[in-house]
Amino acid sequence: MAINADSLAQLRGILVKSKRFVFLTGAGISQESGIPTFRGNGGLWKTHDPAKLATLSSFHENPSLVWGYYSYRQKLISKCQPNPAHLAISKIKEQKKGDSWVLIQNVDNLHRLAGSKNIIELHGNIFKLSCIRCGYSGYMDMDMVLPPKCTNCESVLEPCVVMFEEALPQKEWATSIELSFSCDLVFIAGTSLNVSPVNTLPSYAKDNNAVLAEVNPEETWLSRFMDFSIKGSSADVLPNIYNLMK
């Protein structure tokens, strides 16, 4: 798909002048690294029932089943690497050397592996685990017995991923709202904006007259409100924007 050169040039100019900008990314970027999404034609929900595998109540009822699923996902994700979109975001942020953030719905840690800093993990990190009883937190050992037990209090540990029936982490969510409301540019990449409440963040930015830019292969329900809506994959479009900034 051809990328509109004028749109890229305009975005480049806005990025250069931006004092605080935010990337908001989702499963589409992860998919380009070979990680299946939970929605769409290749979504994991096509073969697994989320009501049994990714809800808090199911975890309490059958932690072994739920941990088996998350362990499967961890092993799948651990074989994947950051793609050109992750790398372009990291390079754009480094090039700017200003106040820039990445608000991610992804749980795969690939933005961090690509070198990005100032990351807010709104839906958690699949490689982390925690104990809600004593507060222990740490990283998953791929070879540990499932379900993993806390070494301090012997409670079953939970994956640090926001499940259905759970609220977003309060600190991360509050910071994301503040950043969205105070930024001058939100760059939305690889997300369908179908997941609440994260899909409300662009509205906070718009209330502050920030520029909204979207990169997605298909239109989203918010496309008509965007200042820029570029149809294409993040792995194709974002490196082009970075190259214009050099």
In short:
The protein is of the alpha/beta class and 246 residues long. The protein is built from ten helices and nine strands.
Model description:
With 246 residues, this protein is α/β, with parallel strands linked by helices. It is 38% helix and 18% strand. The chain folds into two domains: 1-35 and 82-123 and 166-246, TPP-binding domain (Rossmann fold, 3-Layer(aba) Sandwich), CATH 3.40.50; 36-79 and 124-161, SIR2/SIRT2 'Small Domain'. The protein has helices at 5-17, 27-31, 50-53, 56-61, 63-78, 84-96, 110-113, 170-182, 201-207, 234-245; strands at residues 20-25, 99-104, 119-121, 124-130, 137-139, 158-161, 185-189, 211-216, 228-231. It has a six-stranded parallel sheet, with helices on both faces. Strands 5-4-6 form a three-stranded antiparallel sheet, covered by helices on one side. The longest helix is centred in the N-terminal third of the chain and has 16 residues, at 63-78. It is elongated, with a radius of gyration of 18 Å.
